[in-house]
């Protein structure tokens, strides 16, 4: 069997959920489990959070149906709402909470014949300019949807663009836009993603929406997961499958892009870009081999990557390699590769077997 596995510590996820809840006592929290629970396996994550989570948030109806099959009662929030008119009926059958972010969605909802009314979250575009109504439109639609037969609760939601930049003026402005609408009598309000849960108490409202923090990574460039008190859930581990010595001026990997400047020992690791390791990770990106931190060298291949073992002379074929996880925060790898932990975690591909544990 190919020695590559993503080990998911489900107790880290339940503990991280508890951290989110402790940040905002008395509030409820939708665990954001879209994109296969950020790559961690939606079924296992939802099952682990079964007795704990107040609700779950997903990106589409297909994801919602998967969660509903495991969770008969929990609230499930469809973050982008329905993509066409036919989806409302199915959403009602599944008993979902739906975002309504556009006139088209609002009109389709009002035209729908539903077997039961839906909890509706009117989305305010408070400054991100991706989805949502401006304040005036939102007030109009509040009026139109209040009391409509298709609507159970009428709620308010918005999303921050820059909550990961501490002290951001844009975030202040977004918060003000949201607060300005609170003269309307919404049943529930939701604004805070992980960054806001952790650092902006004024944004906590009624329902939190923690995503990345559940998985033990940081949304911030200047605060580590450890500093935030969350524990990494996924360790991506492989093995050293080959070792060789290369002389000065020998090159390594596709394109010969890395050249040895000293006599070097090169290790080959059973993980590549078809597993979700970023192909654009540059030489120097950290990798843990047998507990030692070494550097990636040469281009990442589809199924393998190479590391410089010159300063880890005891490393040998069969040694455990951690690409990220308990010993090496995914955020460090992401920083080296010019991306974010979110992308690395959610892009671990289906061919990587997931193993689950609880410590
Ligand atoms: C609308 C919405 N709310 C909450 C989240 C969770 O954000 P985070 O993973 O930064 O906590 C996301 C994630 O992208 C989102 O799109």
TrEMBL record:
Family statement: Belongs to the alanine racemase family.
Name of the protein in its database record: Alanine racemase
Binding residues annotated for substrate, in chain numbering: 130, 302
Record PROSITE patterns: ALANINE_RACEMASE
Gene name of the record: alr
Reactions that this protein is recorded to catalyse: L-alanine = D-alanine
Keyword Ligase: no
Molecular-function GO term, any one: alanine racemase activity
InterPro entries in the record: Ala_racemase, Ala_racemase/Decarboxylase_C, Ala_racemase_C, Ala_racemase_N, Ala_racemase_pyridoxalP-BS, PLP-binding_barrel
Active site: 34, 254
Alanine racemase C-terminal domain: residues covered: 233-357
Naturally occurring in which organism (per UniProt): Pseudomonas spirodelae
CDD domains, alphabetized: PLPDE_III_AR_proteobact
EC number: 5.1.1.1
Pfam family, one: Ala_racemase_C
